[in-house]
Design a protein that fits this description.
Distance between the termini: 43 Å
Order of helices and strands: EEEEHEEEEEEH
Strand content: 35-45%
Number of strands: 10
Helix content: under 10%
Structural class: mainly beta
Mean pLDDT: 77
Low-confidence stretches: 136-174
Strand order of the largest sheet: 1-2-7-4-5
Radius of gyration: 19 Å
Number of domains: 1
Shape: globular
Number of helices: 2
CATH topology: Jelly Rolls
Length: about 170
């Protein structure tokens, strides 16, 4: 994880909107973002490689910012507390293609919550993981998958057992 500074701007210009800035100490290529949701229904993430964009007072202005994730759903039902405090880990499969074309110095999280049930909408425990440079060559960077003989090797995973759709309901009713 990279050392970051988090600034929670609280409620945005609109009801049910909150904006959080995350500043990185030095420019880095983004790998993954993890956080604990705090009653946000959806999140949009923008990045910038220009520190002056982070200093602008107009938080809703997107000039100098590049979207890497748009309206990612964090809660299936904004009026119910069920998924309101889940942990999320967002990575390359979630981000828009080309998100890592250049190193970034900041991220801006736009949180949305259409329900009036929740007074505070935020993210907690935000972590930004970056890709370190490998020694011995400019531009060579680690991607989180192990490299073996020039090919990427995926980590071993164990498939989860899923119940057939007809059995799910009866399983929970037992």
């Amino acid at each position: 994880a990279t050392a970051v500074t988090v600034t929670d701007h609280g409620r945005g210009a609109r009801q049910g909107c909150s904006i959080i800035d995350v500043s990185l100490e030095s420019p880095a290529r983004l790998s993954r973002v993890t956080f604990r949701n705090w009653y946000a229904c959806s999140v949009t993430i923008r990045t910038t490689s220009d520190r002056s964009s982070m200093m602008k007072k107009e938080l809703e202005n997107t000039e100098g910012w590049r979207a890497i994730l748009i309206d990612f759903n964090l809660m299936s039902n904004p009026h119910v507390e069920t998924e309101s405090q889940l942990w999320h880990s967002l990575g390359p499969n979630d981000f828009i293609a080309g998100y890592d074309d250049e190193p970034v110095v900041g991220l801006r999280f736009y949180l949305s919550q259409p329900s009036v049930n929740w007074k505070v909408v935020s993210l907690k425990n935000i972590s930004v993981l970056t890709r370190p440079k490998l020694e011995g060559g400019a531009g060579n960077e680690r991607r989180g998958l192990s490299l073996t003989a020039g090919r990427r090797r995926r980590p071993q995973t164990t498939p989860c057992r899923t119940l057939p759709s007809t059995d799910r309901r009866s399983f929970w009713l037992r």
